[in-house]
Design a protein that fits this description.
Elements (H helix, E strand, L loop, with lengths): L1 E4 L7 H11 L9 H10 L9 E7 L2 E10 L10 E8 L8 H15 L4 E6 L4 H5 L4 E8 L2 E9 L1
Antiparallel strand pairs: 1-2, 2-3, 3-4, 5-7, 6-7
Helix pairs in contact: 1-2
Length: about 150
């Protein structure tokens, strides 16, 4: 298993676009695959500053991705740095891969001088992020889904 950056694997943009579209974006009628692809492509440039994406490969197969991004939730512009798009392919879930993504994201964020990293997740993921030092701040609506906004001091 190899952890890397999307900047070193831009050929994975289409794969990640499909994952993100199927998992989240298709629930929002105004969001297209092209829009999702553009957002991912923005994260395929940077290696040492936001925004960027972390990828994990098993051999030559992409199995997971996470993003470090700016101001993910427009309702909270004061929250600058975010972890988002944590996705592990279904056949690899339950094997600690999300933990590897989160750990790498926290490490990179700290190296870049980030003081607080935010995320939003559905309630069934709160415990995972709490294990990594995130604390629930409040709940909000993301489309029709109630999410928890969480923060981790670095």
């Amino acid at each position: 298993m190899k952890i890397g950056l999307l900047a070193d694997h831009p050929q994975e943009i289409a794969h990640i676009t499909q994952w993100y579209y199927d998992q989240w974006a298709r629930h929002f009628p105004h969001v297209t695959r092209e829009m999702v692809s553009r957002k991912i492509t923005e994260k395929a440039v940077n290696r040492d500053q936001f925004p960027l994406a972390i990828v994990i490969h098993e051999g030559n197969t992409l199995i997971a991705v996470a993003e470090l991004k700016f101001r993910e939730n427009a309702n909270y512009p004061e929250y600058e740095h975010w972890l988002g798009g944590v996705y592990v392919t279904s056949s690899q879930r339950g094997l600690g891969i999300a933990t590897k993504l989160i750990t790498k994201a926290l490490s990179l964020s700290q190296c870049m001088g980030v003081k607080t990293l935010y995320l939003q997740c559905e309630s069934h993921h709160v415990a995972l992020y709490e294990k990594h030092g995130f604390e629930a701040c409040h709940h909000t609506l993301h489309g029709k889904v109630v999410t928890t906004i969480m923060a981790c001091s670095l």
